[in-house]
Amino acid sequence: MYLGLDLGTSGLRALMVDENGVPVASAEAHYDVSHPHSGWSEQDPADWVRACEAAFSDLQANHPADFAKLSAIGISGHMHGAVLLGEDGQVLRPCILWNDTRCAQEAAHLDHAPGMRDISGNIVFPGFTAPKLLWVETHEPDVFAQVSKVLLPKDYLRFWLTGEHVGDMSDAAGTSWLDVGARDWSETLLSQGHMRKDQMPRLVEGSEISGMVRPELASSWGVTDVAVSGGGGDNAVAACGVGCFKEGQGFVSLGTSGVLLAAKDSFAPDPATAVHTFCHAVPDRWYQMGVILAATDCLNWLSARLKRSPAELAGLVDTLNGPSGVMFLPYLSGERTPHNDSAIRGAFIGLDVGTGDAELVQAVMEGVSFALRDCLEALRATGTELQDVLAIGGGTQSPVWVEMLATVLGLPLSLPKDGEFGAALGAARLAMVARGAAVEDVMTQPEIGQTVAPRADLADAYDAAYQRYRALYPAIKDALA
């Protein structure tokens, strides 16, 4: 048996699969995010451990025979977080998360430092890890002076599981400390961020063994000789879950945030586009992606305002008849691709006295779709083209939203048949490869339930609406200045 752990922002999911990669059992546990100040987003790493213990207890209690056969664990996790450990291995402060924007000033400073973009292959975004440490150095110097190790969130779970300080290339690529082409820590980038290589974990590929489960844990769970694979950042591991690792393959994710990801056979960065270029979780592969900070989170926000569930709101838009008269900018937490602007904020444009809930929902769906079109155009500016695009994430439960997105992107979108195909499955697959399975044998694409084609009759109307949407960003930015 193989176990995939997916450490999400709001909860942990554990998925157990057999030797053929077929799901056998799953368990979930949840935790909160703290927002002590405007723009801050933090979590207590101890909550992740408690969630992991709860998930393991659930699986052990309800599937004891299968759990006893556990051979390896793979780990996926939200990227860019900063878990700071002292010499004694204790956590020094709450983890600063990926969607925390407090260090925009430090990110801008680092982004202009010599070699940063050339070596890392990326803009230094405010959500990345390196500027977080500069913020700590300035605002919490006593904490900074005690930092012995910096771990990414999923790697703190690994530390708990194995006692080892180990990371992987795909997750480390989002720190601004990694030479993404060479797949190793960069002394130059670390120095620019006032860090040292001995403060970094040892790096392995996502499909390699990173360590073994500690004897005391293994004994309490009734298992022996359980390996922990390198695992990876959530998007790279999700790509493993949908078999996306060859040039031309990609997926679009309508999750809390939005992602348009393209697998790459080589390292071909273009930081100026604000496209992320990261190591994949399998050797000798990379990927590029455009990221928007709020996708279904925009609908969640509207749900809280209108006091109606997201599912109920989505149901108000049941047919696609063309662009709404209302436009929405989905910059509720700033934006990454293509603007790299942590200060920009969202807006509704074109409201009138007759605007109802359905019009607001459609505008939100269209705004998110247009933002993902921005990501597609940024990817194309790097020379990347997509031929085979899967659509995943909670937003794909709305057939109208999927049809709208296909039309806005001008790409057919394939929806996997019901089943497991996300980051938890990708993590389990990396565990299988760590124990000897071949990447090509286990990183297969899911069975397709439906392919949604763009609406040719609405393509021109949505393209014109997208051009209007693009003109709104500079206007809103000027208004907020």
UniProtKB/TrEMBL annotation:
Parts of the chain that traverse the membrane: none
Keyword GTP-binding: no
InterPro entries: ATPase_NBD, Carb_kinase_FGGY, Carb_kinase_FGGY_CS, FGGY_C, FGGY_Carb_Kinase, FGGY_N, Xylulokinase
Domain Carbohydrate kinase FGGY N-terminal positions: 1-241
Active site: D234
UniProt keyword annotations, A-Z: ATP-binding, Carbohydrate metabolism, Kinase, Nucleotide-binding, Transferase, Xylose metabolism
Positions bearing the site annotation: Important for activity: D6
GO MF assignments: ATP binding; D-xylulokinase activity
Function (record text): Catalyzes the phosphorylation of D-xylulose to D-xylulose 5-phosphate.
HAMAP family attached to this UniProt entry: XylB (MF_02220)
UniProt-recorded name of the protein: Xylulose kinase
Species, as recorded: Pelagimonas varians
Lineage, top ranks: Bacteria, Pseudomonadati, Pseudomonadota, Alphaproteobacteria, Rhodobacterales
